[in-house]
Design goal:
By secondary structure, the protein is α+β, with helices and mostly antiparallel strands. It has a single domain, classed as Roll (Pnp Oxidase, Chain A). A 7-stranded antiparallel β-sheet has the order 2-1-5-6-7-4-3. A hairpin with a 5-residue loop joins β1 and β2. The longest helix has 16 residues. It is elongated and about 60 Å long. The chain starts with 13 loop residues before the first helix and ends in a 6-residue tail after the last helix. The relative contact order is 0.19. This is FMN-binding negative transcriptional regulator. Pfam families: FMN_bind_2. It comes from Asticcacaulis endophyticus.
């Protein structure tokens, strides 16, 4: 079981965690067993009928040595990192403040099961591609590759990662004084950082 982060940094809902994963799908898959293995991969969330996050879908290259490790020891740690930035005391009127880092992250202990069925692998690939191509002006689909798509799909193995435990932290200035929080927002704005500031406002609606 992973050590929990302070409750003040807890996400508001499972939906917020899913949104983080959909916006930042490139995760680290870290495994132990016969030596450590780590592979960065794009993943897609899977939710139950109530919207609760229960698993991830992804794929490895069959040539990846981590596949055999995971077949023998299927437990893995999956790590997502969302928007983050350094908080500089140089932005603050009170220069006795310490520097810190604001971020959004999510970690999951998962049990992996591998998928050999070609149709299921292609369905998961199409789902991933559709998510990545959404809102593009000239969106692409795997069907445009023709027969080559089927050949390339044979070089990968799909997997489902069922969540055993999770620990997400959205550290977004919740514990800062009002004046310090305002100085941080202004400093981030001056540096052109808008993605993180929007999340900071959402998680501090009582003062932002």
């Amino acid at each position: 079981m992973m050590d929990p982060k302070p409750s003040k940094y807890a996400p508001h809902s499972d939906a917020d965690i899913v949104s983080l994963i959909e916006a930042h799908p490139f995760a680290w898959i870290v495994s132990a067993g016969s030596g450590f293995g780590a592979t960065p991969l794009p993943l897609r969330p899977r939710c139950d009928t109530d919207g609760k996050l229960i698993a991830f879908a992804g794929h490895f290259a069959r040539s990846n040595a981590q596949v055999e490790r995971l077949k023998s020891h299927p437990r893995a740690l999956i790590l997502f990192m969302g928007p983050h930035a350094y908080m500089s005391p140089s932005w603050m009127a009170d220069r006795t403040q310490a520097p810190t880092w604001n971020y959004m992250s999510a970690a999951f202990e998962c049990d992996l099961s591998f998928i050999e069925d070609a149709d299921e692998i292609e369905a998961d690939l199409n789902d991933l591609i559709a998510a990545m191509e959404t809102d593009r002006s000239n969106g692409w689909s795997m069907a445009e590759m023709g027969e080559r798509a089927h050949r390339l799909a044979r070089g990968i193995i799909g997997f489902r990662a069922d969540i055993v435990s999770q620990n997400a932290a959205f550290k977004l200035g919740q514990d800062e004084r009002d004046d310090v929080f305002t100085d941080i927002l202004n400093g981030l704005a001056q540096e052109g950082e808008h993605g993180l500031t929007q999340h900071m406002r959402t998680y501090n609606t009582d003062r932002a």
